[in-house]
Amino acid sequence: MSDQLTFQDPTTRFPDISPPKQDQPEPGLDAELIPGTDRGEDSYTGTGRLRGRRALITGSDSGIGAAVAIAFAREGADVALSYLPAEEEDAQHVCEIIRGAGRRAVPLPGDLSDPEYCREVVRRAAEELGGLDALVNNAGRQIAVEDIADLTDEQWEDTFRTNIHAMFRVSQAALEHLEPGSTIVNSTSVQAYSPSAHLIDYAATKAAINNFTKGLATQLAPRGIRVNSVAPGPIWTPLQVSDGQPKDALPHFGKNTPLGRAGQPTELAPAYVFLTSSESSYVIGETLNVNGGQPSP
Ligand code: NAD
Ligand code: MG
């Protein structure tokens, strides 16, 4: 590895992007995002930290979940991927990269707002991978609404169903398979502490995820199962263009962080690898903030 790769200025490691205004129907596709994102395809190098692990990663077709899936495979894990059927193109791209790393990729499309799929995706992942010892609850939806008067009952409930109810259901089902040494990592957000005015439903689910992470971690620690979470700041992913942000905000996305730029999905992957690998054996109920320096408790 060249010295240039091991010593990098974080302000310039990735370009300071100014995404043009754009719109995609929910869920957005990485394949159509302008500019494209870095999910570590050409940069993430594994060192065998997850050799032989069997992981289910939700929302692993795109964005942060895709970067985590690529990193897990390059670290030696087999990966089952959960995503919506409309995201098949993105998912197949990630499956190819996983297979290119010599690991198994098991695509399992479905809708996590359906309780039946939450249980079925776990059952199929364990069946296809010959067991399960790592779960990453990463799927989430984020739809910006400026005024609470316009926030419909349907949206409120959809956001909770996808972001937190599914996390409970998938985790509960996974625990039938997780042996001591297994891990759960949940995707929360800087929004859990600093809610944006236009994301009140989403931010509330992320605060719930932080709390769920700590409570479940305490419950499962005696069983040798560790639960932690990662709290990303502004990361350039399809979530942002499928109404995750007001359109006018897109060109400025992430520029208000102390680092001065949005994060790329691959910058999240090492946090998930760390919390899943046995290196973090004494880390329990923690939320690892990866947010470009925004204040968080
Ligand atoms: P993304 O759109 O690439 O990933 C989200 C994924 O969630 C989608 O790919 C989709 O597969 C999945 N999903 C959504 N609704 C679903 C449903 N009903 N059933 C099944 N799957 C569903 O965006 P991302 O930014 O990589 O998001 C990943 C996680 O990171 C989310 O939990 C998000 O809240 C969190 N997060 C993102 C940011 C950011 O700035 N991008 C910041 C903080 C937290
Ligand atoms: Mg997607």
From TrEMBL:
Q: Where is this region: Disordered?
A: 1-47
Q: Which residues form the Ketoreductase domain?
A: 53-239
Keywords attached to this entry: Oxidoreductase
Under the heading Pfam families, the entry gives: adh_short_C2 (PF13561)
Its domain of life? Bacteria
The protein's GO terms of the molecular function aspect are:
oxidoreductase activity, acting on CH-OH group of donors
Comp. bias intervals (Polar residues)? 1-11
Which InterPro entries does the record match to this protein? KR_dom, NAD(P)-bd_dom_sf, Sc_DH/Rdtase_CS, SDR_fam
Using the record, list the residue span of the signal peptide; answer none if the entry has no such feature: none
| Family the entry assigns | Belongs to the short-chain dehydrogenases/reductases (SDR) family.
| Record protein name field | Ketoreductase domain-containing protein
Species annotation: Brevibacterium iodinum ATCC 49514
For this protein's source organism, the top of the classification is: Bacteria, Bacillati, Actinomycetota, Actinomycetes, Micrococcales
